[in-house]
Protein backbone atom coordinates (compact mmCIF):
# COMPACT_ATOMS: atom_id res chain seq x y z
CA UNK A 1 0.00 0.00 0.00
CA UNK A 2 1.33 3.45 -0.87
CA UNK A 3 1.60 5.66 2.22
CA UNK A 4 -0.74 8.66 2.34
CA UNK A 5 2.17 10.69 3.62
CA UNK A 6 5.69 9.83 4.59
CA UNK A 7 8.57 11.65 6.27
CA UNK A 8 12.08 10.40 5.58
CA UNK A 9 14.93 11.62 7.83
CA UNK A 10 13.03 14.87 8.10
CA UNK A 11 14.78 17.81 9.79
CA UNK A 12 14.05 21.49 10.08
CA UNK A 13 16.64 23.89 11.41
CA UNK A 14 16.41 27.64 11.77
CA UNK A 15 19.67 29.38 11.09
CA UNK A 16 20.62 32.59 12.85
CA UNK A 17 22.86 33.77 15.65
CA UNK A 18 21.49 30.90 17.74
CA UNK A 19 20.52 27.99 15.47
CA UNK A 20 17.35 26.16 16.53
CA UNK A 21 16.43 22.62 15.51
CA UNK A 22 12.65 22.26 15.34
CA UNK A 23 12.54 18.60 14.27
CA UNK A 24 15.36 16.20 13.62
CA UNK A 25 15.66 12.98 11.70
CA UNK A 26 11.96 12.07 11.71
CA UNK A 27 10.87 8.90 9.93
CA UNK A 28 7.12 8.48 9.80
CA UNK A 29 4.74 6.61 7.52
CA UNK A 30 0.99 7.24 7.66
CA UNK A 31 -1.10 4.71 5.76
CA UNK A 32 -4.48 5.37 4.11
CA UNK A 33 -7.22 5.08 6.75
CA UNK A 34 -4.80 5.44 9.65
CA UNK A 35 -5.41 7.81 12.57
CA UNK A 36 -2.13 8.95 14.16
CA UNK A 37 -1.72 11.25 17.16
CA UNK A 38 1.47 13.26 17.60
CA UNK A 39 2.11 13.90 21.27
CA UNK A 40 4.90 15.53 23.25
CA UNK A 41 5.60 18.36 25.66
CA UNK A 42 5.28 22.02 24.75
CA UNK A 43 8.05 23.03 22.37
CA UNK A 44 8.87 19.46 21.33
CA UNK A 45 8.27 20.20 17.64
CA UNK A 46 4.75 18.82 17.12
CA UNK A 47 3.42 21.82 15.18
CA UNK A 48 6.66 22.13 13.23
CA UNK A 49 6.34 18.50 12.12
CA UNK A 50 2.70 18.99 11.13
CA UNK A 51 3.54 22.08 9.06
CA UNK A 52 6.23 20.11 7.24
CA UNK A 53 3.84 17.21 6.57
CA UNK A 54 1.27 19.73 5.31
CA UNK A 55 3.75 21.24 2.85
CA UNK A 56 3.34 24.59 4.60
CA UNK A 57 7.04 24.64 5.49
CA UNK A 58 10.08 23.14 3.79
CA UNK A 59 12.55 20.84 5.50
CA UNK A 60 16.26 21.63 5.74
CA UNK A 61 17.03 17.90 5.66
CA UNK A 62 15.24 14.78 4.48
CA UNK A 63 11.96 14.84 2.58
CA UNK A 64 8.19 14.51 2.62
CA UNK A 65 6.51 12.15 0.15
CA UNK A 66 2.82 12.42 -0.70
CA UNK A 67 1.37 9.14 -2.03
CA UNK A 68 4.97 8.06 -2.63
CA UNK A 69 5.81 11.17 -4.68
CA UNK A 70 8.77 13.28 -3.53
CA UNK A 71 7.94 16.96 -2.95
CA UNK A 72 11.36 18.55 -2.45
CA UNK A 73 11.75 19.78 -6.03
CA UNK A 74 8.24 21.20 -6.36
CA UNK A 75 7.54 24.91 -6.76
CA UNK A 76 5.35 26.81 -4.25
CA UNK A 77 2.48 26.68 -6.76
CA UNK A 78 2.84 22.93 -7.16
CA UNK A 79 2.90 22.47 -3.38
CA UNK A 80 -0.24 24.62 -3.09
CA UNK A 81 -1.94 22.46 -5.73
CA UNK A 82 -1.17 19.31 -3.70
CA UNK A 83 -2.50 20.94 -0.53
CA UNK A 84 -5.67 21.94 -2.33
CA UNK A 85 -6.22 18.52 -3.85
CA UNK A 86 -5.17 16.25 -1.01
CA UNK A 87 -4.99 17.90 2.42
CA UNK A 88 -7.58 19.29 4.83
CA UNK A 89 -6.35 21.43 7.72
CA UNK A 90 -7.95 21.94 11.14
CA UNK A 91 -6.42 24.32 13.67
CA UNK A 92 -6.94 25.06 17.36
CA UNK A 93 -8.79 28.25 16.52
CA UNK A 94 -11.49 27.49 14.01
CA UNK A 95 -10.89 30.55 11.77
CA UNK A 96 -14.50 30.52 10.61
CA UNK A 97 -15.72 33.70 8.92
CA UNK A 98 -17.75 35.36 11.70
CA UNK A 99 -20.17 37.24 9.45
CA UNK A 100 -21.18 34.18 7.41
CA UNK A 101 -23.49 31.31 8.32
CA UNK A 102 -22.08 27.86 9.01
CA UNK A 103 -23.41 26.73 5.64
CA UNK A 104 -21.62 29.60 3.85
CA UNK A 105 -18.41 28.86 5.75
CA UNK A 106 -18.37 25.39 4.22
CA UNK A 107 -19.86 26.38 0.88
CA UNK A 108 -17.39 29.18 0.10
CA UNK A 109 -14.28 26.94 -0.05
CA UNK A 110 -16.21 24.38 -2.12
CA UNK A 111 -17.15 27.11 -4.61
CA UNK A 112 -13.57 28.34 -4.72
CA UNK A 113 -12.51 24.91 -5.97
CA UNK A 114 -14.56 25.73 -9.06
CA UNK A 115 -15.64 22.16 -9.74
CA UNK A 116 -19.31 22.47 -8.83
CA UNK A 117 -22.13 24.84 -9.70
CA UNK A 118 -23.41 27.16 -6.96
CA UNK A 119 -26.38 24.88 -6.29
CA UNK A 120 -24.20 21.75 -6.18
CA UNK A 121 -21.72 23.47 -3.84
CA UNK A 122 -24.55 24.42 -1.50
CA UNK A 123 -25.87 20.84 -1.52
CA UNK A 124 -22.44 19.43 -0.79
CA UNK A 125 -21.87 21.91 2.07
CA UNK A 126 -25.26 21.03 3.53
CA UNK A 127 -24.46 17.32 3.20
CA UNK A 128 -21.14 17.74 5.00
CA UNK A 129 -22.80 19.65 7.84
CA UNK A 130 -25.52 16.99 8.07
CA UNK A 131 -22.94 14.22 8.25
CA UNK A 132 -21.35 15.98 11.23
CA UNK A 133 -24.74 16.33 12.92
CA UNK A 134 -24.97 20.05 12.30
CA UNK A 135 -28.09 20.01 10.12
CA UNK A 136 -30.01 22.20 12.58
CA UNK A 137 -27.27 24.80 12.67
CA UNK A 138 -26.76 25.53 8.98
CA UNK A 139 -28.16 29.04 9.13
CA UNK A 140 -26.51 30.08 12.38
CA UNK A 141 -23.47 32.29 12.69
CA UNK A 142 -20.38 30.70 14.24
CA UNK A 143 -20.81 32.79 17.41
CA UNK A 144 -24.21 31.17 17.96
CA UNK A 145 -22.63 27.72 18.31
CA UNK A 146 -20.77 25.99 21.11
CA UNK A 147 -17.01 25.47 20.84
CA UNK A 148 -17.46 21.83 19.85
CA UNK A 149 -20.04 22.67 17.21
CA UNK A 150 -17.77 25.37 15.78
CA UNK A 151 -14.91 22.91 15.58
CA UNK A 152 -17.19 20.45 13.77
CA UNK A 153 -18.00 23.18 11.23
CA UNK A 154 -14.26 23.71 10.83
CA UNK A 155 -13.88 19.96 10.20
CA UNK A 156 -16.71 20.09 7.64
CA UNK A 157 -14.85 22.94 5.94
CA UNK A 158 -11.62 20.91 5.99
CA UNK A 159 -13.54 18.17 4.14
CA UNK A 160 -14.63 20.61 1.42
CA UNK A 161 -12.02 19.33 -1.03
CA UNK A 162 -12.71 15.69 -0.06
CA UNK A 163 -9.11 15.26 1.11
CA UNK A 164 -7.61 11.82 1.70
CA UNK A 165 -5.42 13.39 4.42
CA UNK A 166 -6.48 15.59 7.33
CA UNK A 167 -3.90 17.39 9.47
CA UNK A 168 -5.09 18.91 12.73
CA UNK A 169 -3.04 21.04 15.14
CA UNK A 170 -4.42 20.94 18.70
CA UNK A 171 -8.00 20.93 17.39
CA UNK A 172 -9.37 20.31 20.88
CA UNK A 173 -7.17 22.82 22.70
CA UNK A 174 -10.17 25.06 23.36
CA UNK A 175 -12.72 22.38 24.16
CA UNK A 176 -13.92 20.72 27.34
CA UNK A 177 -13.01 17.07 27.87
CA UNK A 178 -16.29 15.58 26.68
CA UNK A 179 -16.41 17.67 23.51
CA UNK A 180 -12.75 16.93 22.85
CA UNK A 181 -13.55 13.21 23.02
CA UNK A 182 -16.37 13.66 20.51
CA UNK A 183 -14.04 15.45 18.08
CA UNK A 184 -11.47 12.66 18.39
CA UNK A 185 -14.17 10.04 17.88
CA UNK A 186 -15.23 11.91 14.75
CA UNK A 187 -11.66 11.73 13.43
CA UNK A 188 -11.70 8.00 14.15
CA UNK A 189 -14.89 7.63 12.11
CA UNK A 190 -13.46 9.63 9.20
CA UNK A 191 -10.49 7.25 9.18
CA UNK A 192 -12.35 3.96 9.65
CA UNK A 193 -15.44 4.59 7.56
CA UNK A 194 -14.09 6.91 4.88
CA UNK A 195 -10.50 5.68 4.65
CA UNK A 196 -9.00 9.10 5.30
CA UNK A 197 -5.63 9.43 6.97
CA UNK A 198 -5.69 11.65 10.02
CA UNK A 199 -2.70 13.18 11.80
CA UNK A 200 -3.60 15.10 14.95
CA UNK A 201 -1.25 17.03 17.22
CA UNK A 202 -2.28 16.97 20.86
CA UNK A 203 -0.55 17.38 24.19
CA UNK A 204 -3.36 15.33 25.76
CA UNK A 205 -2.12 11.77 26.17
CA UNK A 206 -5.54 10.44 27.18
CA UNK A 207 -7.12 11.73 23.97
CA UNK A 208 -4.18 10.39 21.99
CA UNK A 209 -5.23 6.89 23.05
CA UNK A 210 -8.31 7.26 20.87
CA UNK A 211 -5.99 7.24 17.83
CA UNK A 212 -4.75 4.04 16.17
CA UNK A 213 -1.14 4.96 16.90
CA UNK A 214 0.84 7.52 18.86
CA UNK A 215 4.07 9.21 17.87
CA UNK A 216 5.81 10.89 20.79
CA UNK A 217 8.22 13.76 20.25
CA UNK A 218 10.83 15.09 22.67
CA UNK A 219 13.23 17.81 21.57
CA UNK A 220 12.20 17.37 17.95
CA UNK A 221 12.86 13.61 17.85
CA UNK A 222 10.55 10.62 17.91
CA UNK A 223 11.09 8.68 21.11
CA UNK A 224 9.67 5.23 21.90
N1 LIG B 1 10.07 30.78 14.08
C1 LIG B 1 10.69 30.31 15.18
N2 LIG B 1 11.79 30.92 15.66
C2 LIG B 1 12.43 30.44 16.74
N3 LIG B 1 12.05 29.35 17.41
C3 LIG B 1 10.96 28.70 16.98
C4 LIG B 1 10.21 29.14 15.83
N4 LIG B 1 9.19 28.28 15.65
C5 LIG B 1 9.28 27.37 16.62
N5 LIG B 1 10.32 27.61 17.43
C6 LIG B 1 10.77 26.78 18.56
O1 LIG B 1 10.87 25.47 18.09
C7 LIG B 1 10.43 24.53 19.06
C8 LIG B 1 9.32 23.66 18.49
O2 LIG B 1 8.13 24.45 18.35
P1 LIG B 1 6.72 23.79 17.99
O3 LIG B 1 5.73 24.90 17.97
O4 LIG B 1 6.86 22.94 16.80
O5 LIG B 1 6.47 22.86 19.26
P2 LIG B 1 5.12 22.22 19.81
O6 LIG B 1 5.50 20.87 20.31
O7 LIG B 1 4.06 22.30 18.77
O8 LIG B 1 4.78 23.18 21.00
P3 LIG B 1 3.34 23.57 21.67
O9 LIG B 1 2.75 22.30 22.21
O10 LIG B 1 3.75 24.53 22.77
O11 LIG B 1 2.53 24.21 20.58
C9 LIG B 1 10.03 25.36 20.26
O12 LIG B 1 11.09 25.38 21.18
C10 LIG B 1 9.75 26.72 19.68
O13 LIG B 1 9.97 27.72 20.64
From TrEMBL:
SMART domains the UniProt entry points to: AAA
Domain of life: Bacteria
Domain ABC transporter: 5-223
Assigned keywords, A-Z: ATP-binding, Cell inner membrane, Cell membrane, Membrane, Nucleotide-binding, Transport
Stored Gene3D superfamilies: P-loop containing nucleotide triphosphate hydrolases
Coiled coil: none
Gene Ontology terms for molecular function: ATP binding; ATP hydrolysis activity; transmembrane transporter activity
Gene Ontology cellular component terms for the protein in this record: membrane protein complex; plasma membrane
Family assignment from sequence similarity: Belongs to the ABC transporter superfamily. Macrolide exporter (TC 3.A.1.122) family.
Protein name: ABC transporter ATP-binding protein
Organism expressing this protein natively: Paramagnetospirillum marisnigri
Amino acid sequence: MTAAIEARSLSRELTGPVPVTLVRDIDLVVEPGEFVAITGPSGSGKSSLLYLLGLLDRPTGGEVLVRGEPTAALTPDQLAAIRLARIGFVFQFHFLLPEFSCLANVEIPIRRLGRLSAAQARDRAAGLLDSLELADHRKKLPEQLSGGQRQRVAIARALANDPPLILADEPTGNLDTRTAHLVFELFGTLAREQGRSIVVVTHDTELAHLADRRVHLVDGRIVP
